[in-house]
Design a protein that fits this description.
Largest interface: A-B, 24 and 24 residues
Shape of chain A: globular
Strand order of the largest sheet of chain B: 5-6-7-3-8-9
Helix content of chain A: over 70%
Radius of gyration of chain B: 18 Å
Largest sheet of chain B: 6 strands, mixed
Number of helices of chain A: 12
Number of strands of chain B: 9
Helix content of chain B: 25-40%
Oligomer: heterodimer
Shape of chain B: globular
Structural class of chain B: alpha/beta
Chain lengths: 271, 231
């Protein structure tokens, strides 16, 4: 617990004191907020675009950046030598990112005018996306592809928006299996733009496919014990916990709205 | 405390270390001297398990959490202040809250405790890196050129600090270019050139062996005699 507290405090300070980390999140939040005051009708779609960009760009880049900094400053190794267990490090790091994103997404939800159950649904869907982004960001941060994390974030954050808002069919096909596209579709469904939204099973399978991809990446990390020897096993543990959480969220949602998602679609249409 | 026997390391086709034998006793300051590219940092990296030797054996009689490492200015977060950087490890090691400030005072950074690392001079950053490495009073301390960016006054202060640590029983393994520093500080030294240990022992005895004692022992002359190049 002592280690988690120490690393959590440091990661929180790192996030809040590093303008590169929070300025983008603040910007994504600020623009829809200003728009919400100017144009109430368009703000719903506009907010979704920024939510997707936040989930994709800010969270992938942010988590990769955090890991990369610890790796480059050699603190990852020093922390490991000091007795910080992999799961303690990852719980602390992911904890900070999840708390920050929960705060930002709640504000996004409020800007969209959500409250109560709708707000909770909005947070479930978007936080699942955030958890995928964090895992993807951590994977990239650990790998040699770390410098490309912002590019991956931009692709996943902007691609679905372009596909849906500009009606670019090729992009839709390309991004259909990305979790950000699925969130985009799910969120649009909730405001009746696309009533024939993807079903919960589809969403679930896409999330789990993403996680399987990340699991594969972590397994590959295991083969390079020289660097970051402390992380792989912990990453897998956290990943499994994350997958369990995702599964639980979908089970709860399925029980509530029905396995085929019909009731959810209906609720969205009504909403 | 540290034992390396016939250690070899290659990066691709290039042999960085060959037949390295080092024996460091508990409680002593051991200096590894050599020019840039001689393989000093590679030896520290092998001893701290950051890279693996290709052949030979090594033994370090200290648990990972009992080892302190200062590699250049590594281990510091540029956007956090000095105190926040040390608080991370104070928290992990469960040290009293006053300890980071105490250590900052020891390295002469008490007044800069709230300064962000990115605003510190090179010398101050190096002192902070040293503070981070000694914060939890490690049993074994690896210092990679701890005084390379320091002015003479601060450098003397750091040397006094190292002597103090030795008196407390800390074993120190340091690399340096500074021959005077090695003469004054180290119980024993090894001269490294082109990945090979060319001489090893007590610094004053080495100087006497190579008749490099004129008015004061002169390790520069020893190195020049052994390798034909100046440090």
């Amino acid at each position: 617990m002592r280690n988690i507290k120490a690393v959590f405090t440091k990661q929180f300070l790192s996030y809040t004191k590093n303008p590169g980390q929070w300025v983008m999140s603040a910007t994504f939040l600020l623009i829809p907020f200003i728009m919400s005051m100017a144009n109430n009708e368009g703000v719903a779609i506009f907010t979704i675009q920024f939510v997707i960009m936040f989930v994709g760009i800010s969270m992938i880049g942010g988590s990769a950046g955090m890991i990369l900094e610890d790796k480059q400053t050699m603190n990852l190794r020093f922390m490991g030598m000091a007795g910080v267990k992999p799961y303690q490090y990852l719980i602390s790091t992911c904890g900070v990112l999840l708390i920050v994103s929960l705060g930002v997404l709640t504000l996004f939800g409020l800007i969209r005018g959500h409250s109560g159950e709708i707000l909770i649904n909005f947070l479930i869907v978007t936080m699942l996306g955030v958890s995928c982004s964090i895992l993807l960001g951590i994977t990239l941060g650990l790998s040699k592809l770390a410098p490309f994390s912002w590019l991956v974030g931009i692709l996943l954050g902007v691609g679905p928006v372009m596909a849906n808002d500009f009606g670019i069919g090729v992009l839709s096909q390309l991004f259909y299996f990305s979790y950000t596209y699925q969130i985009d579709v799910a969120l649009r469904g909730s405001i009746s733009i696309l009533p024939d939204v993807t079903t919960i099973e589809e969403l679930s399978s896409v999330y789990n496919l993403t996680n399987m991809y990340e699991l594969r990446a972590f397994l590959r990390e295991l083969r390079t014990p020289r660097d970051l020897a402390i992380l792989p096993m912990g990453s897998i543990r956290v990943l499994l916990v994350n997958m369990a959480a995702i599964l639980l969220a979908f089970v709860v949602t399925n029980l509530k709205y029905g396995l085929d998602g019909e009731r959810l679609v209906k609720l969205r249409s009504e909403g | 405390m540290i034992k390396m026997e016939n250690v070899e390391k290659r990066f691709g086709q290039h042999t960085v270390l060959s037949d390295v034998n080092i024996n460091v006793k508990e409680g002593e300051i051991f200096g590894l001297l050599g020019p840039s590219g001689a393989g000093k940092t590679t030896i520290i990296n092998i001893l701290t398990n950051q890279i693996k030797e290709d052949s030979g054996t090594k033994e370090v009689k200290a648990l990972p959490h009992e080892i302190g490492i200062m590699l250049d200015i590594g281990g510091l977060y540029a956007h956090l202040n000095c105190l926040e950087n040390l608080n991370l490890y104070a928290g992990i090691y469960g040290l009293p809250k006053s300890k980071p400030m105490e250590v900052l005072e020891n390295v002469g950074l008490k007044d800069s405790a709230k300064k962000t690392v990115s605003t510190l001079s090179r010398g101050m950053t190096q002192r902070l890196a040293l503070a981070r490495a000694i914060l939890y009073e490690p049993k074994l301390l690896f210092l990679d050129e701890p005084t390379s960016a320091l002015d003479p006054g601060t450098s003397k202060g750091v040397c006094r600090l190292m002597q103090g640590l030795r008196e407390q029983g800390t074993t120190i393994f340091l690399t340096t270019h500074n021959m005077d520093e090695a003469l004054k500080l180290c119980n024993r030294i090894a001269l490294l050139y082109d990945g090979k240990i060319v001489e090893q022992g007590n610094p004053v005895e080495i100087c006497e062996r190579y008749e490099a004692v004129r008015t004061v022992p002169d390790l520069e002359t020893v190195f020049l005699q052994l390798t034909g190049v100046q440090l």
